[in-house]
Design brief:
2 strands; two-stranded antiparallel ribbon; 109 residues; 3 helices
């Protein structure tokens, strides 16, 4: 009888420990996801701010140096910015981070 009770108790402790391990893994993954999403948001905000400043300066100051080239048309300025971001790998980095976050999010929840 004691053996049966001991076995049931041990199994309950095992289940509880397994559940705690799963929760810890979940919380670590969630923290990582929040950190990654915050970083992605900050990077996106930096690009957005630079685009807004460039757009404003070209429209209201008629000239702006964008990635080493002076431009006077805001469409040309935005194209230069985008090409510069592509050359630096920022666009692909943001897209890759977004895909990674999306797959991590789907597997976490």
């Amino acid at each position: 009888m004691a053996l049966i009770i001991g076995g049931i108790y041990s199994y309950q402790v095992y289940k509880k420990n397994k559940k705690l391990e799963q929760l810890e893994a979940y919380y670590k993954k969630e923290d990582s996801l929040v950190t990654d999403m915050t970083s992605l948001g900050a990077s996106s905000e930096d690009i957005t701010n630079e685009v807004e400043t460039t757009w404003h300066d070209v429209i209201f100051n008629d000239l702006r140096k964008v990635k080493g080239t002076y431009v006077s048309d805001f469409n040309d300025a935005l194209v230069q910015l985008y090409l510069g971001y592509e050359d630096e790998g920022k666009i692909s980095d943001l897209e890759d981070a977004q895909k990674a976050n999306k797959s991590n999010e789907e597997s976490s929840f």
